[in-house]
């Protein structure tokens, strides 16, 4: 390839659109039918194709490359809450973890109008800059399904005040500074399985025309898992693989040998940290009592259970300013759900024995809703015709912490 002193044109003949992060829509000169003519920036294209694709050179570079200019003010960490206020506490704690890692980059959070003023206040106090977005419906999702709105993630590409974004899920902790990823191109991520990347941590480059491209194909591209991860993997078939430590999944595979399990537990607990990022799969730490990882009490979720990783999350939580802790309180319904799972584990006499542990978490007693008598919710829990009308008609939560409110 030319040294980059002369401009070069690249002509591609293809019925599909060319890989959009190698040949960007900004660099498209003209398209006629299946002929695409680009005038690429040779320096950035060279940097990308020089990145290792094999398994021998996965490490991140020790030193920044001099030809790759970066401007910290145009770089940010970003996350998104798609209609999920239960992730507010996670996002607040994730922000804390980024600051504890020593990063000073902007923190940007995308929220839609289902996130209340109260919760917005907490996110801002934690350091997130709020961007209100119009959510994007996944046309292939069922109504009210978990993945109904997750195509809203495409709006990250509209954050054109920034050249580079490290996207992070709201359910992870940054234990060591990962700013070095700002030197990596779109898409940089860890491998999920085979040739696919995990979208929990990924580097992207905002661009309105890339956003448009993602939107243009929303009805035709089929996502293998029904989520944004599957969709993005269809579009960005070229991506740069980084070590698993930069998005380490809290997950013990069924096939993991005992040694491997022990190694993972050691990694979760290492202090000073060895892992850069822990990604909390399964039930989230803030939706459990702090006493133990509540994934233990659900048979199919036990593969996600780790008390060591759980404790680590709470340590970061506890290091946050006191005024942020109230965003991590448990709703009555969640307390009932946790107790229900615990009772099932007791009935099943689960051998890990976590269900025997007495809960000392003060959040058990703290109530910020009008309805605090969560035990009554258990009377009919699990019955097929059970509805939670008793709580649904109550007023929205009032942000008052009190363990003294009388039970109804
Ligand atoms: Mn996640």
From TrEMBL:
GO biological process: cell wall organization
Membrane topology type: Single-pass type II membrane protein
SUPFAM superfamilies to which the protein is assigned, alphabetical: Nucleotide-diphospho-sugar transferases
Species per Swiss-Prot/TrEMBL record: Daucus carota subsp. sativus (Carrot)
Enzyme class: transferase
Superkingdom of the source species: Eukaryota
Enzyme Commission designation: 2.4.1.-
Gene Ontology MF term list: glycosyltransferase activity; metal ion binding
Name under which the protein is recorded: Hexosyltransferase
Gene3D superfamilies: Spore Coat Polysaccharide Biosynthesis Protein SpsA, Chain A
Family: Belongs to the glycosyltransferase 8 family. Glycogenin subfamily.
Subcellular location field: Golgi apparatus membrane
Matches recorded under CDD domains: GT8_Glycogenin (cd02537)
Keywords tagged on the record: Cell wall biogenesis/degradation, Glycosyltransferase, Manganese, Membrane, Metal-binding, Transferase, Transmembrane, Transmembrane helix
GO CC list: Golgi membrane
């Amino acid at each position: 390839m030319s040294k980059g002193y002369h401009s070069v044109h690249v002509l591609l003949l293809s019925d599909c659109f060319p890989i959009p992060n190698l040949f960007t829509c900004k660099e498209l000169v003209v398209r006629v039918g299946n002929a695409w003519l680009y005038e690429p920036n040779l320096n950035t294209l060279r940097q990308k194709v020089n990145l290792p694709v094999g398994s021998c050179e996965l490490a991140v570079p020790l030193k920044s490359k001099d030809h790759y200019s970066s401007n910290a003010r145009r770089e940010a960490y970003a996350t998104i809450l798609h209609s999920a206020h239960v992730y507010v506490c996670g996002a607040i704690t994730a922000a804390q973890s980024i600051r504890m890692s020593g990063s000073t980059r902007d923190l940007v959070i995308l929220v839609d109008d289902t996130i209340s003023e109260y919760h917005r206040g907490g996110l801002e106090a934690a350091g997130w800059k709020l961007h209100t977005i119009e959510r994007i419906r996944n046309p292939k999702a069922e109504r009210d399904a978990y993945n109904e709105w997750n195509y809203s993630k495409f709006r990250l590409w509209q954050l054109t005040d920034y050249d580079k974004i490290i996207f992070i899920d709201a359910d992870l902790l940054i234990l060591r500074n990962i700013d070095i990823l700002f030197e990596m191109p779109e898409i940089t991520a860890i491998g999920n399985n085979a040739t696919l990347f995990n979208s929990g941590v990924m580097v992207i480059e905002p661009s309105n025309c890339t956003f448009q491209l993602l939107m243009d194909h929303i009805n035709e591209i089929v996502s293998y898992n029904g989520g944004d991860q599957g969709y993005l993997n269809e579009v960005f078939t070229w991506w740069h693989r980084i070590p698993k430590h930069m998005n380490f999944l809290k997950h013990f595979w069924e096939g993991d040998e005992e040694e491997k399990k022990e190694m993972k537990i050691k990694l979760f607990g290492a202090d000073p940290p060895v892992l850069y990022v822990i990604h909390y799969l399964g039930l989230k730490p803030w939706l459990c009592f702090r006493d133990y990882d509540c994934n233990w009490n659900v048979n199919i979720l036990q593969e996600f259970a780790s008390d060591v990783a759980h404790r680590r999350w709470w340590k970061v939580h506890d290091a946050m300013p006191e005024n942020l802790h109230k965003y991590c309180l448990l709703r009555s319904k969640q307390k009932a759900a946790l107790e229900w799972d615990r009772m099932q584990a007791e009935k099943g006499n689960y051998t890990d024995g976590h269900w025997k542990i007495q809960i000392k978490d003060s959040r058990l007693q703290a109530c910020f809703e009008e309805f605090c008598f969560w035990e009554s919710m258990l009377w009919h829990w699990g019955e097929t015709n059970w509805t939670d009308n008793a709580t649904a008609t109550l007023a929205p939560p009032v942000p008052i912490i009190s363990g003294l409110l009388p039970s109804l």
